[in-house]
Amino acid sequence: MRWSIAQSRLLIAGLVCLVLPYAQAQAPKRSPKMIYVDNGSLRLGIDLNMGGSITYLAPADHPERNVINSADLGRQIQLSFYSGPVPYQPAGSQMSEAWKGLGWNPIQTGDYYGNPSKIIESRVSKNRLYVKCIPMHWPLRNVPGECQFEVWLELQGNTVQAHCRLTNKRNDLTQYSARGQELPAVYVNAPYHHLVTYDGPRPWSNDKTTEIRNRLDKENHWATWLATENWAAQVDDSDWGLGIWNPDTSRFSGGFCGEPGVGGPSDSPTGYIAPNRTEILDHDIVYDFRYVLILGNLPQIREYAYRHADRTHLPSWTFQNTRDGWSYENATDAGWPVRRGLEVKLGEGINRLVSPEFAAPTEDIRAVEVTASCTARLENLTLDWASSNTPLEHRMTIPWIDAAGPHTYRFPLRGTLPAKDVLTQLRLEVLSHQADAAVLHIAGIRLVK
Fold first, then answer.
1. Which of 277, 308, 339 is the last residue in one of the domains?
2. Are residue 143 and residue 211 in the same domain, yes or no?
């Protein structure tokens, strides 16, 4: 049976992996409809018969050296988003049983049955490409998403600067739980079988890198890890290949499937990388993210991240027109758009607010401050935190202050954090005794030096 890697994609919604990949349904072959840009360093191409996904990236002076794998419609470099319900099956639609666990899953290229996404608009100018499409739901036969994808790509030196946007127009107004997103999904050819990253507790110190040796065809799942410098790369035996840097994402997934070494864009063996971030995708959300592709050797890829990362500030979240990657357990909020803070509708019992993952050196952190107010009387506010080696099991509880307006709660962490490590995630917890009507307003959260 031929491996179809896209169909063994990590179900990052719940960090669950499919046990076995499945062959893609038979579909007619379509000739590529390519548009290209070339800046003298890189040559970049997108296929308008595959939703405008990236299917070609090579050095300009070696155009035969395309690193991107396109053996089926679920590979390429493309957008893929997840939400509820699970399963997602509009009335009268046909769904692949193998993929019903994905739920709502529009992807840029097309569906499992080979139906491509519909291009609405495309533009090409010097060093720039733009595409807008209506994506298809991967598990369903010929069901367009109630959404649009837009991608802006610009060549700068040996990099591709990408800006991506999801615009939802769903009729289902439910606010579904946050799920993991692929930001984006990246598939490369067989020569680039060494997956290298930095996942240690001393980011930005030129500490030794790690090779992720996960094989999907042997272990039946992709690897997942905390990339504390926000990058990973698939390189060949000479350490040359494709890197991706997403400065807003620390959780990555990836690996390799098939026989390493020899194979091109149409061959089954492939490597995979995806920066992952857990997000709520409202029925009407406009969700943007950015990433950078770097074509070069491993030191060049890592050096790019070092040169462009903002290492002067600790993480902080002000929730101005965005949730900043925070999500909820046993709670919802006022919906999109977010305006001047989170308006969290508490459920009866324990409610949790969970941060995105990050990597902040523990020696730099004195405290965590939370500016909040609530329409109901609360007893305590609890903060849990995780480091690179421990999950969300550290805990500090302080009394709730019944103030007329927002109050800043300070959690003094100095002396409680492990030395020479990184703080990687926060979780706020409140206990509500009201069945409804209680609203917790979070104006801001920050790590204090």
1. 308
2. yes
